[in-house]
Amino acid sequence: MTTGARAAICRGNTAPFTIEDVELDALRDDELRVRVVACGVCHTDMAVRDAQLPVPLPVVLGHEGAGVVEAVGSGVTVARPGDRVIMSFNSCGHCPSCAIDAPTYCYEFFPYNWSGARPDGSATVFLGGERMNANFFGQSAFATHAIAHERNVVKVPETMDGVGLDVLAPLGCGLMTGAGAVLRAMKVRAGLPIAVWGAGTVGMAAIMAAKIAGADPIIAVDLHDQRLGMARELGATHVINGRDDVAARIRELCPSGLGYAFDTTGVNRLIQLAFSLLAPKGVVGVVGASDPADEVVFNEAALMGGGRTVMGILGGDSDLTGFLPELMEYYREGRFPFDRLIGHFDFEQINEAIEASESGRVIKPVLRISPE
Fold first, then answer.
1. Do 94 and 138 share a domain, yes or no?
2. E strand or H helix at 110
3. Do 17 and 150 fall into the same domain?
4. Most buried of 36, 48, 147, 224 (most Cβ within 10 A)?
5. 110 and 216 both lie in a single domain
6. Does residue 25 sit in the same domain as residue 167?
């Protein structure tokens, strides 16, 4: 039996998103139907809209969803009807990466997240009786209801009962990526310096996580003074406008070099600059989306001789069931105040939310889709 819902349809970058009536497929054994309360707007959604990622159009996007479980398949153990949950990316659970709790590097990431359908090719959403591309990151949460899966749902612990899902929703992607890059992937050590290029959602999460890790100094680099001001409030000890001589300023602050550099921009010349500023055994982590044709060039002697590392990072190396509750606890303790990044929009304002994100007016737009 199908279930009626309303979903925002993306047909590309030449037309606005439109909210239309759709039908959700009947649940499989490992699936959950979630009434979506809120969903964050992420740069990755816009990358699909602009055909920068191999996701078929038209499509129901949205991959930072949070809501209340309405129904579950017979094999679901992670949540029950009535539970509050956060949704994130999906994974196969049986490949070599999943076997070592590294699901962001799942060998089957594309069919489970970007194919527009279930891995077996079946549709999760229908529009006018015809299949609609969906199952984006195993959820497609720009909708009143979404089909999620056993491996991409995390139950919100009771300790967070006083925190709304319209606050918790964006933990499932951008915040997890930035914080996980610092705490999980690069494993930033206390007392060592870190510089973060880009003070958007991912960069701000990295700055807050660097403070948790005890990094010092914590340097934020961005073109917008307003964001740099926010970065300082959230944990940056120093801020640099990207129009200034960034290399000179960092060398002045860290004459021995950076222990860690984190790039969220995807701009190859900035990644190369970050690498050039590393101390021996320094690590540069790269998460920014870039043109598939772009390349970065490093000096081989500097890479080998200094034992330096260039690290590609997906999803902050996060295992969902362990890391998302950890971030929620940091928030509860006041150590990860990501709510300061959020601006709320009604579901019908989805195009305004996207504009606010792309203009930089709001760091993390979150759509309020249904009452909690």
1. yes
2. helix 109-113
3. yes
4. 36
5. no
6. yes
Residue 309's H or E segment, with its range, is strand 309-312
Same domain flag for 193 and 308: yes
Bridge-based pairing of strands 194-197 and 153-155 is unpaired
Q: Tell me how far CA of residue 258 lies from CA of 254, 276, 279, in angstroms.
A: 6, 9, 5
Alpha helices in 181-334 (DSSP H): 201-213, 225-234, 246-253, 268-276, 300-305, 320-332
Per-residue model confidence as pLDDT tens digits over 68-110: 999 999 999 999 999 999 999 999 999 999 999 999 999 999 9
**Residue pLDDT, tens place only, 178-191:** 999 999 999 999 99
Domain assignment present for residue 160? The answer is yes
* Predicted TM-score (pTM) of this structure: 0.96
* DSSP 8-state code for residue 216: S
Considering the domain boundaries, does residue 321 fall inside one?
no
Count how many residues are written for the chain: 372
Share of the chain above pLDDT 90, in %: 97
| Tokens 């591309």 sit on residue | 133
Nearest-angstrom CA–CA distance, 185 and 113: 22
- CA distance linking residue 209 with residue 372, whole number of Å: 29
d(CA 367, CA 349): 8
CA-wise closest residue to 310 among 351, 353, 281: 281
Boundaries of domain holding 341? 3-172+337-368
d(CA 22, CA 144) in angstroms, rounded, equals 10
Question: Total structural domains in the chain?
Answer: 2
Which amino acid, 271?
A: I
CATH number at residue 275: 3.40.50.720
